[in-house]
Amino acid sequence: MSCDFRALANEGVQKISPYVPGKPEDELQRELGLPRIVKLASNENPLGPSPKVVEAIQKKLNAITRYPDGNGFELKQALAAHLSVGADMLTLGNGSNDLLELIAKAFCGPGSEVLFSEYAFAVYPLAALSAGATPVVAPATNWGYDLAALKACITDRTRVIFIANPNNPTGTWLTQSELLPFLDEVPENILVVLDEAYSEYVASGDYPDGVSLLGRYPNLIVTRTFSKAYGLAALRVGYSVSHPDVADVLNRVRQPFNVDTFAQVAAVAALKDTEYLARTIKTNHEGLAQLVEGFEALGLEYIPSVGNFICVKVGPKAGEINKAMLAQGVIVRPVANYNMPEHLRVSVGVKEENEFMLSALKKALSDL
Ligand SMILES: *Cc1c(COP(=O)(O)O)cnc(C)c1O
Questions:
Q1: How far apart are CA 191 and CA 147, in angstroms?
Q2: Distance 146 CA to ligand 1 centre (A)
Q3: Which numbered atom of ligand 1 lies nearest the CA of 236?
């Protein structure tokens, strides 16, 4: 008999259930060979890439034999200008997911606690457990964060608090007037990570811009990504903005070349393409309204969202409905692993994709 290698893993690692990604289109295509597949499962940009980004990568292809710029000079310069912050406040990541893990790795370990809300992004417990820390889950209210409950869970052992604003998978968000009193009360030796993966989509006037709060709250770390509104999910590039000393710490634990050359070049080009971003936001607002209207027409409840996705309540047979939609070539995201067994999360697509999804949902519901 061979050795029990699972038992050799660190205690926290043994407790991890691996992240379940949205089903890839190719996989469903292989399984079912359907003529049309619509994937609305991973909150990707439905417009396809910005042509300017594709061109920038093509021009750079010969750099493939060289290591990337490990310090990401050009991208940091572009971001510093874009955000009006010092380049020493920036840390680049292999997706913003990388930063969430670097933060846990650098600041948390056995005996420390990582705090987040019920229904929060699934990567937070993974990051905590990988670092050997204990995840602590505060109860939510109405699918959204309950900041009083979150505050009540702070202990002497709390090192990091993760807050996704807006949150994935629920699409709920915190306003400036809710967030500031909470930040005022968090002890300054606890790092608060404001995960703004979807901030570009939020139109609400009272939505806080985390970067503008950094001067007032030195213990804040804002993370953002090029995967969602900028349409670069495959390239894996994100960043954090923080106090320069926090950035210095993160810089020590990251891989020396954690963001590849094409990701860096693409991110610089993406930042410049303001037309693409504007079109993305417009498409999303229209698509979200279309989905809401569609759900209402089907008599379904949904959780109001400001992201590029929305959770719809289809009832206790959500698993079967998901399967029936897959059989029609529509990939959405079951969220039972978030303790939301009656919901499905649907990413906002372009008009035709949303229509296709809604008709597949309608058929799945009526066939039950
Ligand atoms: C998608 C997502 C991220 C990170 O995605 P990356 O592709 O790793 O940048 C981070 N936080 C939330 C809440 C997300 O939904």
A1: 15
A2: 21
A3: 7
User: 262: CA distance to ligand 1 center in Å?
Assistant: 19
Model confidence pLDDT, tens digit, residues 40-56:
999 999 999 999 999 99
Which pTM value belongs to this model?
0.96
Low-confidence ranges of the chain (pLDDT < 70): none
Contact indicator for 115, 158 with CB cutoff of 8 Å: yes
3-state secondary structure (DSSP) of residue 182: helix
For 30, residues 6+ apart whose C-beta sits below 8 A from its C-beta are: none
Residue owning the nearest CA to atom 12 of ligand 1: 197
Q: For a ligand 1 pocket test, name from 43, 201, 227 the mutation site with the most ligand atoms within 8 angstroms of its C-beta.
A: 227
SS3 86: coil
Write the pLDDT tens digit of every residue in 67-100: 999 999 999 999 999 999 999 999 999 999 999 9
| Pocket perturbation via mutation, ligand 1, pick of 45, 96, 117 by most ligand atoms within 8 A of CB | 96
Q: Is 257 helix (H, G, I), strand (E, B) or coil?
A: coil
User: 119 alpha carbon to ligand 1 midpoint, in Å?
Assistant: 15
In the chain, alpha helices (H): 5-8, 11-14, 25-32, 51-60, 73-83, 96-107, 123-130, 147-152, 176-185, 210-213, 244-253, 261-272, 274-297, 318-327, 351-367
Q: State whether the beta carbon of 121 lies less than 6 angstroms from ligand 1.
A: yes
Q: What is the DSSP string of 109-177?
A: -TT-EEEEETT--THHHHHHHHTTPEEEEEPPBTTB--HHHHHHT--TTEEEEEEESS-TTT-----HH
How many angstroms separate the alpha carbon of residue 367 from the centre of ligand 1? 35
Interatomic CA distance for residues 100 and 70, integer angstroms? 19
Residue nearest to atom 14 of ligand 1 (CA): 197
Q: Could you tell me which residues come within 8 angstroms of residue 201 by beta carbon, excluding any fewer than 6 positions away? A: 166, 228, 229, 281, 284, 306, 307, 308
* CA 30–ligand 1 middle distance (angstroms): 27
